[in-house]
Specification:
alpha/beta, 20 helices, five-stranded parallel sheet, Rossmann fold, Helicase, Ruva Protein, domain 3
């Protein structure tokens, strides 16, 4: 956890608060204290806490009353009741009300540390489940799985047939074409749709931590392993695990992944006990895995295991008839988010969008429409709103402004800006496209203040 664990102790016994504070501070936790329920609730409403220790018997507001208000405001926050021997029965009732657990006085430092760690684990699991289900719900819209083009109709036909099966699917396509959303679509129409959908971003995870993230580890298995960790495979049990940009994983991890696919079991780092997992595997890449196999950077046997049913997503430049549908969809989406009512997009702006090649694919189109909606001053999007975001097309470059053609310098500036954008700022490639040398391009960049 990147931030320090925040703990709130609510107890009217100052000596009890002091002893608990000393134990928990040694664990690296940050402690806040309150002597009664009212003060505790005020702190709880103002600050964020990972755990609350709450005395059952308090002056003024009762512990049960405070518990109810806390669980209503923040149901994922674990509340541990502090109780004496004579009130254990009441503590059990508090658990039925929503308390995570109780700790009976007198308790040892180790008992306190143990229940704090259990509460943190419980909170983490609750948040993971909330995240997985909210992701499932949010992605059920499938923002990018829209299109009437023949290319997209073929894709949708394949995924409609493969979704109800247990078959492993390999989704290929350029960055921004919506590979993860297709994986969500497959999962949501599978028999596992009510179970977790877990994404593993193979390009974002650090190699040294990748194995721990996938398979988990037991406490003390390596430096920094302060607690037992559930790996992504365990979290996905019963559901679907999706490996995004799978070509980035090392040969060592590839071998271990192959074993999981074959045996459907994982072993945590530092353990010899295999754990059975019931999962469906989906994968995606923007590379040609057949080429990586030929180069020796990707295992051939793993490639064939993953590519039982291949699905290729076409780039947006090959399905331009879908652009008006996508633009309309994103307009509605970002109107709602920005609380705006943009109802029109001019023919010139739509033509500019249709003529542009979209190197960033649908993700770039979505970002462009979002920015245009947010920054638009009226109820429509015109060519100027699109040009502001670097979209270029012949129709926009030569369009009339105040009844006159644009000055040549304006056209040159817009064109150079568009070419640089298409080449992601690479001046050598942009100069080659423009038919000029780098020195000339640099001079024009300075002249037009494009740096």
């Amino acid at each position: 956890m990147s931030d320090a664990v925040q703990v709130l102790i609510i107890d009217d016994d100052e000596a009890m608060r002091d002893s608990m504070r000393q134990v928990l501070k040694k664990e690296g936790y940050q402690i806040r204290e309150a002597k009664d329920g009212q003060e505790g609730l005020a702190l709880f409403q103002k600050e964020h806490f990972h755990i609350v220790f709450l005395d059952l018997k308090l002056p003024g507001l009762s512990g049960i009353h405070v518990l109810r208000q806390m669980k209503y405001a923040s149901p994922e926050t674990p509340v541990v009741m502090i109780t004496g021997f004579g009130t254990i029965e009441s503590a059990v009732e508090a658990i039925k009300t929503g308390a995570f657990d109780y700790i009976a006085k007198p308790f040892t430092p180790e008992e306190l540390r143990l229940i704090a760690r259990k509460a943190l684990d419980s909170r983490k699991m609750t948040l993971e489940n909330l995240y997985l289900h909210s992701e499932l719900k949010a992605k059920s819209e499938f923002d990018m799985v829209i299109g009437k083009s023949r290319a997209m109709q073929k894709v949708l036909d394949v995924i409609s047939r493969v979704s109800p099966t247990e078959t492993t699917v390999l989704i290929t396509g350029e960055s921004g074409t919506g590979k993860e959303l297709i994986a969500h679509e497959i999962h949501s129409h599978s028999l596992r749709h009510d179970a977790p959908f877990v994404v593993v971003d193979c390009g974002a995870l650090v190699e040294t931590l990748f194995e721990s993230e996938l398979f988990g580890h037991v406490k003390g298995s390596f430096t920094g392993a302060h607690e037992t960790k559930h790996g992504r495979f365990e979290v996905a049990d019963g559901g679907t695990i999706f490996f995004d940009e799978i070509s980035n994983i090392s040969l060592n991890i590839q071998a271990k992944l192959l074993r999981v696919i074959q045996e459907r079991e994982v072993t945590r780092i530092g353990s010899s006990r295999p754990i059975k997992v019931d999962i469906r595997i989906l994968a995606a890449t923007n590379e040609n895995l057949a080429i990586t196999v030929a180069k020796g950077t990707f295992r051939e046997d793993l490639f064939y295991r993953l590519s039982v049913v291949p699905v290729h997503l076409p780039p947006l430049r090959e399905r331009k008839e879908d652009i008006p549908l996508l633009v309309e969809h994103f307009l509605q989406k970002y109107n709602k988010k920005a609380k705006k009512n943009i109802t029109d997009i001019s023919p010139q702006a739509m033509k500019a969008l249709a003529d542009y090649d979209w190197p960033g694919n649908i993700r770039e189109l979505e970002n462009t429409i979002e920015r245009a909606v947010v920054l638009s001053k009226g109820n429509g999007i015109d060519i100027e709103d699109i040009m502001y975001h670097g979209i270029s097309a012949a129709s926009s470059l030569f369009s009339f402004a105040d009844g006159k053609f644009k000055p040549l310098e304006d056209v040159e500036k817009e064109y150079i800006k568009a070419v640089l954008r298409d080449h992601h700022g690479n001046r050598s490639r942009a100069a080659k496209t423009l038919g000029i040398d780098r020195k000339t391009l640099w001079a024009k960049i300075k002249k037009y203040n494009l740096a």
